[in-house]
Write a structure and sequence with these properties.
- The chain is built from ten helices and six strands.
- Helix 3 crosses helix 4 and helix 7 crosses helix 9.
- The protein binds magnesium ion.
- The site of magnesium ion has 6 residues, from loops.
- Keywords: Signal.
Protein backbone atom coordinates (compact mmCIF):
# COMPACT_ATOMS: atom_id res chain seq x y z
CA UNK A 1 0.00 0.00 0.00
CA UNK A 2 1.42 3.36 -0.93
CA UNK A 3 0.40 6.96 -1.19
CA UNK A 4 1.47 9.11 -4.07
CA UNK A 5 1.07 12.84 -4.67
CA UNK A 6 1.10 14.31 -8.15
CA UNK A 7 0.11 17.46 -9.96
CA UNK A 8 -3.25 17.63 -11.68
CA UNK A 9 -4.67 20.56 -13.60
CA UNK A 10 -3.15 24.01 -13.44
CA UNK A 11 -2.99 24.44 -9.71
CA UNK A 12 -4.19 21.25 -8.25
CA UNK A 13 -2.72 18.34 -6.50
CA UNK A 14 -3.69 14.79 -7.08
CA UNK A 15 -3.71 12.40 -4.21
CA UNK A 16 -3.45 8.81 -5.16
CA UNK A 17 -4.08 6.01 -2.73
CA UNK A 18 -2.97 2.66 -3.99
CA UNK A 19 -4.64 -0.15 -2.17
CA UNK A 20 -2.38 -2.81 -3.52
CA UNK A 21 -1.98 -5.36 -0.81
CA UNK A 22 -5.37 -6.94 -1.16
CA UNK A 23 -5.33 -6.77 -4.92
CA UNK A 24 -1.90 -8.33 -5.32
CA UNK A 25 -2.35 -11.03 -2.74
CA UNK A 26 -5.65 -12.19 -4.09
CA UNK A 27 -4.57 -12.00 -7.71
CA UNK A 28 -7.60 -9.94 -8.59
CA UNK A 29 -9.02 -10.39 -12.08
CA UNK A 30 -12.33 -8.68 -12.47
CA UNK A 31 -15.05 -7.98 -14.93
CA UNK A 32 -14.21 -10.66 -17.45
CA UNK A 33 -10.78 -9.32 -18.36
CA UNK A 34 -8.73 -11.58 -20.56
CA UNK A 35 -7.14 -14.47 -18.67
CA UNK A 36 -4.28 -14.48 -21.16
CA UNK A 37 -2.31 -11.95 -19.18
CA UNK A 38 -2.12 -14.29 -16.21
CA UNK A 39 -0.80 -17.76 -15.66
CA UNK A 40 -0.40 -20.11 -12.76
CA UNK A 41 2.27 -19.39 -10.23
CA UNK A 42 4.98 -21.99 -10.02
CA UNK A 43 5.62 -21.44 -6.31
CA UNK A 44 5.27 -24.40 -4.01
CA UNK A 45 5.55 -25.04 -0.30
CA UNK A 46 8.37 -27.48 -0.78
CA UNK A 47 10.48 -24.84 -2.45
CA UNK A 48 10.18 -22.73 0.67
CA UNK A 49 11.70 -25.42 2.83
CA UNK A 50 10.13 -27.83 5.25
CA UNK A 51 11.20 -25.87 8.31
CA UNK A 52 9.42 -22.65 7.32
CA UNK A 53 5.89 -22.23 8.60
CA UNK A 54 3.00 -21.06 6.46
CA UNK A 55 3.02 -17.54 7.87
CA UNK A 56 6.64 -17.09 6.92
CA UNK A 57 5.96 -18.46 3.49
CA UNK A 58 3.17 -15.92 3.02
CA UNK A 59 5.50 -13.11 4.03
CA UNK A 60 8.14 -14.34 1.62
CA UNK A 61 5.68 -14.61 -1.23
CA UNK A 62 4.32 -11.15 -0.51
CA UNK A 63 7.80 -9.64 -0.58
CA UNK A 64 8.58 -11.42 -3.81
CA UNK A 65 5.39 -10.09 -5.41
CA UNK A 66 5.91 -6.55 -4.18
CA UNK A 67 9.49 -6.62 -5.48
CA UNK A 68 8.17 -7.87 -8.81
CA UNK A 69 10.18 -11.06 -8.53
CA UNK A 70 7.25 -13.38 -9.16
CA UNK A 71 6.11 -14.01 -12.70
CA UNK A 72 2.50 -13.59 -13.82
CA UNK A 73 0.20 -15.56 -11.57
CA UNK A 74 -3.48 -16.37 -11.43
CA UNK A 75 -3.83 -17.80 -7.94
CA UNK A 76 -2.13 -17.28 -4.64
CA UNK A 77 -0.28 -20.37 -3.39
CA UNK A 78 -2.51 -22.17 -0.90
CA UNK A 79 0.39 -22.10 1.57
CA UNK A 80 -0.20 -18.33 1.84
CA UNK A 81 -3.81 -18.72 3.01
CA UNK A 82 -3.18 -18.56 6.81
CA UNK A 83 -1.04 -15.46 6.43
CA UNK A 84 -3.53 -13.67 4.19
CA UNK A 85 -6.49 -14.57 6.36
CA UNK A 86 -4.71 -13.28 9.45
CA UNK A 87 -3.73 -10.09 7.65
CA UNK A 88 -7.20 -9.45 6.26
CA UNK A 89 -9.30 -10.39 9.28
CA UNK A 90 -6.89 -9.89 12.18
CA UNK A 91 -6.91 -6.10 12.12
CA UNK A 92 -3.70 -5.24 10.31
CA UNK A 93 -5.43 -4.56 6.99
CA UNK A 94 -7.77 -2.05 8.60
CA UNK A 95 -4.97 -0.50 10.58
CA UNK A 96 -3.02 0.00 7.36
CA UNK A 97 -6.07 1.58 5.73
CA UNK A 98 -6.62 3.89 8.69
CA UNK A 99 -3.04 5.11 8.65
CA UNK A 100 -3.27 6.05 4.98
CA UNK A 101 -6.68 7.71 5.21
CA UNK A 102 -5.44 9.68 8.23
CA UNK A 103 -2.58 10.90 6.06
CA UNK A 104 -5.03 11.89 3.34
CA UNK A 105 -7.28 13.67 5.83
CA UNK A 106 -4.31 15.68 7.08
CA UNK A 107 -3.65 16.72 3.50
CA UNK A 108 -7.31 17.53 2.88
CA UNK A 109 -7.42 19.72 5.97
CA UNK A 110 -4.50 21.75 4.67
CA UNK A 111 -6.06 22.52 1.29
CA UNK A 112 -7.30 26.07 0.92
CA UNK A 113 -10.56 25.54 -0.93
CA UNK A 114 -12.39 28.35 -2.65
CA UNK A 115 -15.71 26.48 -2.57
CA UNK A 116 -16.34 27.43 -6.18
CA UNK A 117 -17.39 23.95 -7.24
CA UNK A 118 -14.07 23.28 -8.97
CA UNK A 119 -12.61 20.83 -6.48
CA UNK A 120 -13.03 17.16 -7.24
CA UNK A 121 -12.05 13.84 -5.77
CA UNK A 122 -12.17 10.53 -7.58
CA UNK A 123 -12.67 7.27 -5.73
CA UNK A 124 -12.50 3.74 -6.99
CA UNK A 125 -15.36 1.56 -5.77
CA UNK A 126 -14.32 -2.06 -5.25
CA UNK A 127 -12.04 -2.57 -2.30
CA UNK A 128 -11.62 1.15 -1.94
CA UNK A 129 -15.06 2.32 -0.78
CA UNK A 130 -16.81 -1.01 -0.41
CA UNK A 131 -15.21 -4.33 0.35
CA UNK A 132 -15.37 -7.66 -1.42
CA UNK A 133 -13.61 -9.42 1.41
CA UNK A 134 -16.53 -11.79 1.97
CA UNK A 135 -16.40 -12.94 -1.64
CA UNK A 136 -12.65 -13.46 -1.50
CA UNK A 137 -12.86 -15.24 1.82
CA UNK A 138 -15.03 -17.79 0.03
CA UNK A 139 -12.31 -18.13 -2.61
CA UNK A 140 -9.59 -18.69 -0.01
CA UNK A 141 -8.36 -15.14 -0.57
CA UNK A 142 -7.22 -15.88 -4.07
CA UNK A 143 -6.03 -19.45 -3.65
CA UNK A 144 -9.07 -20.46 -5.65
CA UNK A 145 -9.19 -18.98 -9.16
CA UNK A 146 -11.16 -15.82 -9.71
CA UNK A 147 -14.68 -16.67 -10.87
CA UNK A 148 -16.17 -13.76 -12.81
CA UNK A 149 -19.67 -15.27 -12.79
CA UNK A 150 -19.65 -15.78 -9.04
CA UNK A 151 -18.16 -12.36 -8.52
CA UNK A 152 -20.88 -10.67 -10.54
CA UNK A 153 -23.49 -12.64 -8.60
CA UNK A 154 -21.90 -11.32 -5.41
CA UNK A 155 -21.96 -7.73 -6.70
CA UNK A 156 -25.60 -8.03 -7.69
CA UNK A 157 -26.50 -8.73 -4.07
CA UNK A 158 -25.52 -5.16 -3.24
CA UNK A 159 -24.21 -6.10 0.17
CA UNK A 160 -20.53 -5.19 -0.01
CA UNK A 161 -19.73 -3.58 3.35
CA UNK A 162 -18.24 -0.11 3.53
CA UNK A 163 -14.57 0.25 4.28
CA UNK A 164 -15.08 2.53 7.24
CA UNK A 165 -11.80 4.39 7.04
CA UNK A 166 -12.62 5.39 3.47
CA UNK A 167 -16.22 6.23 4.35
CA UNK A 168 -14.86 8.59 6.99
CA UNK A 169 -12.62 10.15 4.36
CA UNK A 170 -15.54 10.39 1.94
CA UNK A 171 -17.73 12.22 4.46
CA UNK A 172 -14.92 14.63 5.20
CA UNK A 173 -14.47 15.35 1.51
CA UNK A 174 -18.18 16.06 1.11
CA UNK A 175 -18.18 18.31 4.17
CA UNK A 176 -15.21 20.24 2.80
CA UNK A 177 -17.01 20.87 -0.46
CA UNK A 178 -15.31 18.44 -2.82
CA UNK A 179 -17.34 17.03 -5.66
CA UNK A 180 -16.80 13.30 -5.33
CA UNK A 181 -16.82 11.04 -8.37
CA UNK A 182 -16.75 7.26 -8.32
CA UNK A 183 -15.03 5.47 -11.19
CA UNK A 184 -15.46 1.73 -11.44
CA UNK A 185 -14.76 -0.99 -13.94
CA UNK A 186 -18.18 -2.45 -13.20
CA UNK A 187 -20.38 -2.80 -16.24
CA UNK A 188 -22.84 0.05 -16.60
CA UNK A 189 -25.58 -1.98 -18.23
CA UNK A 190 -25.73 -4.88 -15.80
CA UNK A 191 -24.29 -3.58 -12.53
CA UNK A 192 -25.27 0.08 -12.22
CA UNK A 193 -28.42 -0.50 -10.18
CA UNK A 194 -26.77 -2.83 -7.68
CA UNK A 195 -23.76 -0.55 -7.37
CA UNK A 196 -25.84 2.56 -6.69
CA UNK A 197 -27.93 0.65 -4.17
CA UNK A 198 -24.84 -0.73 -2.44
CA UNK A 199 -23.09 2.63 -2.22
CA UNK A 200 -26.21 4.20 -0.77
CA UNK A 201 -26.91 1.47 1.76
CA UNK A 202 -23.34 1.80 3.01
CA UNK A 203 -23.53 5.56 3.49
CA UNK A 204 -21.98 6.85 0.28
CA UNK A 205 -24.57 9.46 -0.56
CA UNK A 206 -24.43 13.01 -1.92
CA UNK A 207 -21.71 12.17 -4.42
CA UNK A 208 -21.51 13.98 -7.74
CA UNK A 209 -21.50 11.09 -10.17
CA UNK A 210 -20.93 7.37 -10.51
CA UNK A 211 -19.02 6.50 -13.68
CA UNK A 212 -19.26 2.89 -14.77
CA UNK A 213 -17.65 1.11 -17.71
CA UNK A 214 -19.90 1.70 -20.68
CA UNK A 215 -20.16 -0.19 -23.93
CA UNK A 216 -17.38 1.88 -25.52
CA UNK A 217 -14.87 0.38 -23.08
CA UNK A 218 -16.30 -3.11 -22.86
CA UNK A 219 -13.55 -5.68 -23.19
CA UNK A 220 -10.82 -3.08 -22.83
CA UNK A 221 -8.43 -2.90 -19.95
CA UNK A 222 -9.35 -1.09 -16.77
CA UNK A 223 -6.14 0.90 -17.20
CA UNK A 224 -7.29 2.50 -20.42
CA UNK A 225 -10.85 3.01 -19.28
CA UNK A 226 -10.01 4.64 -15.97
CA UNK A 227 -7.06 6.63 -17.27
CA UNK A 228 -9.03 8.13 -20.13
CA UNK A 229 -11.96 8.89 -17.86
CA UNK A 230 -9.72 10.64 -15.36
CA UNK A 231 -8.02 12.60 -18.14
CA UNK A 232 -11.43 13.77 -19.29
CA UNK A 233 -12.05 15.05 -15.77
CA UNK A 234 -8.77 16.95 -15.85
CA UNK A 235 -9.72 18.57 -19.13
CA UNK A 236 -12.77 19.95 -17.36
CA UNK A 237 -10.19 22.14 -15.60
CA UNK A 238 -10.88 21.14 -12.06
CA UNK A 239 -8.95 23.21 -9.58
CA UNK A 240 -8.00 20.58 -7.04
CA UNK A 241 -8.31 16.94 -7.88
CA UNK A 242 -7.57 13.94 -5.70
CA UNK A 243 -8.09 10.30 -6.31
CA UNK A 244 -8.04 7.11 -4.30
CA UNK A 245 -7.96 3.59 -5.62
CA UNK A 246 -5.81 0.69 -6.53
CA UNK A 247 -3.50 0.86 -9.49
CA UNK A 248 -5.30 -0.18 -12.63
CA UNK A 249 -3.17 -2.97 -14.02
MG1 LIG B 1 -10.79 -1.42 -6.84
Amino acid sequence: MAVNHQAAGEQGLAFLLFITILDKLIGLKQYGESPDSCCSCSCSASSAGDNINSSSYGLSWRLAVEANNVGPWRTVPIECFPYIETYMSGGQYYQDLKLITDQILSYVNEIDLKNDGMDAWVLDVDDTCISNILYYKGRKYGSDPFDSTAFKAWILKGVCPAIHAVLELYNKLICRGFKVFFITGRDQHTLAKATIHNLHNQGFIAYERLILRNVAYKGQSAVRYKSETEEADRRRRVQNMGKCGRPME
